[in-house]
Amino acid sequence: MSIVSFDLEGDFAAFKDPSVTTNQTVTVIPSKSALIGLLGAMLGVKRSNSFDSIYSEGYLDLLKKTSTGIQVRSQVAKCTFFTNHRSLKEDKTKPYKTELLINPKYTIYVKSTDEINQALFDRLNSNLFVFSPMLGHAYCPARISNVQRISGVKEIDPAVACVSTVILDEVVEFKNNNSGVAFDNAPNFPAKVVVERHLHHYFVEGSLKRTVLRHYIPIPADGKCSVLAVDKYVSNLSLASFYSGDGLEQNICLF
Hints:
Oligomer: single chain
Order of helices and strands: EEHHEEEEHEEEEEEEEEE
Number of domains: 1
């Protein structure tokens, strides 16, 4: 098994919660659907032009076949500014909040079919993309570097994994107050975590499903990547898998 990895960064990022329309609060990481959109842009997957569906067949096919992992390599820093928008209901203006992530940097891991992996690796390695990759908005262009193909990757039991990438919690929160992930103390490693809730898209028997799931995000601490030692992992939806390999700094979680 092999995966493709690359560093993704920019001056700004604007990954937003699509359910929030009153302001543009941004998240630390892109959702999987946003990351698949970025990969699709590089590969030339076009958006849907139909009013019946916001997702094209090419996008859904890429989403179905691809697992992704995200490692945050920068400190979380945001800037906030306000603009005055004219109200459509009253004769007045009202402030509109906008946020941006400052200098975000990630390492992205991608596992897909051999055909998609090869096409992605060729695009990344040549730095020639069909559509320019953006970090959530057209005014947030992305820079890509350190492209690698990592071979010899094997799946491992999450209960014995020390992980430096984002971990997906597959327990739906409104059905169970307890987390589906339990952590142990990882000696000799820093551990700083941010928890975000993202609308996660996935397939069940060929049908597209969506639900809000927690994401545990290790954030660099003391100049080093944080490492989370997983003690228990409940795979309710069978979405995430954990991998190790000689070409990996730490174990990774892909979903």
